[in-house]
Specification:
alpha/beta, UDP-N-acetylmuramoyl-L-alanine:D-glutamate ligase, 35% helix
Length: 306
């Protein structure tokens, strides 16, 4: 059966605690007002959003464990995501994290270091058959060798792919239809390079669209041998920014699949992300395409400061 999107990347089981008045300072106290136990991770969030937009979506990546599979499976079924290629490892508890959110702040606590240092590799190779049956592929950069193999399989199958937060001189970015680079990643990976200089590197070394996101500040996008453009985010009453970057990437995937021009693609992705910032969590509040289009028809931009 044909697919619209194959998403290869991170899936976790998240416990999200919402704090009443922002995150506490060291030694402080915060009142928890909501608790959600639900799927998270860049790939799972994208898969749920894309399925909610009406796309036939399949997921691959980390093995599910005995402590995570029940909830992850129930959400996959609810959203109609094909997880037939996901392996359940009976010797593994599964990837989990604890997320604290308060206003537009968040803090993530997890066990990812031990996951990647474990001598037992806890993720599957990308599914060549699913890639061949897809129209677009979304690839997370987190699995050494395997993420690059997903990109190679997509190229061999002549399928466009969208990726995130990867080096400008790496194989993932070079052939991507679009690469979304977060401000957080830029600051961690390239602290000594200005955004202007760094954007020139990404745009010149990529075959597709490069996008620099910047939270509630204008994002930047463009291609090689073209002048870059800016796009101001939309004005919303923020419930939480958790997963906003994952949501933006899902919007870019949708735009690539639909053949949107660059500005239309960025606008759609920014609208989807803004809409999700009014909701928590993603897993229980996935918008429909009708809702996104209605939001975009009435949305107002955050004023830009010159």
């Amino acid at each position: 059966m044909s697919l619209d999107v194959y998403v290869y990347g991170m899936t976790v089981l998240s416990t999200i605690q919402r704090c009443a008045a922002g995150l506490p300072l060291s030694g402080g106290y915060a009142e928890i007002t909501e608790t959600h136990v639900c799927p998270g991770g860049e790939a799972m969030n994208a898969a749920m959003l894309l399925a909610g937009l009406g796309l036939r979506t399949a997921l691959g990546g980390p093995h599910w464990g005995v402590a995570t599979r029940s909830v992850l499976q129930s959400y996959a079924e609810r959203h109609g995501i094909d997880v037939s290629g996901v392996i359940v490892d009976e010797s593994f508890a599964g990837l989990r994290d604890l997320v604290l959110v308060g206003g537009d702040e968040r803090a993530v606590l997890g066990w990812f270091g031990s996951y990647f240092s474990d001598p037992h590799r806890r993720w599957s190779e990308p599914d060549a058959n699913a890639i061949a049956r897809s129209r677009v592929v979304a690839i997370d950069p987190y699995f050494p060798g395997s993420s690059e193999r997903a990109a190679r399989l997509a190229r061999e199958a002549s399928k466009p792919y969208v990726t995130i937060d990867c080096p400008y001189d790496g194989a993932l970015h070079g052939a991507a239809a679009a690469t979304v680079i977060s401000r957080e990643y830029r600051r961690q990976r390239y602290p000594a390079i200005s955004d202007d200089a760094l954007f020139r590197e990404y745009a010149s070394r990529g075959a597709g669209l490069s996008i620099f996101t910047a939270g509630n500040e204008p994002l930047r996008f463009g291609r090689a041998r073209q002048a870059s453009e800016r796009f101001a985010p939309f004005r919303v009453d923020v419930t939480s920014t958790l997963g906003a970057g994952d949501t933006f990437r899902a919007g870019v995937v949708f735009g690539v699949l639909r053949g949107f021009d660059d500005r239309h693609c960025v606008r759609f992705a920014a609208g989807l992300a803004a809409l999700m910032c009014t909701r928590l969590p993603i897993a229980d509040n996935v918008p429909t395409l009708v809702e996104v289009e209605a939001f975009l028809a009435n949305a107002q931009h955050v004023p830009q400061v010159s």
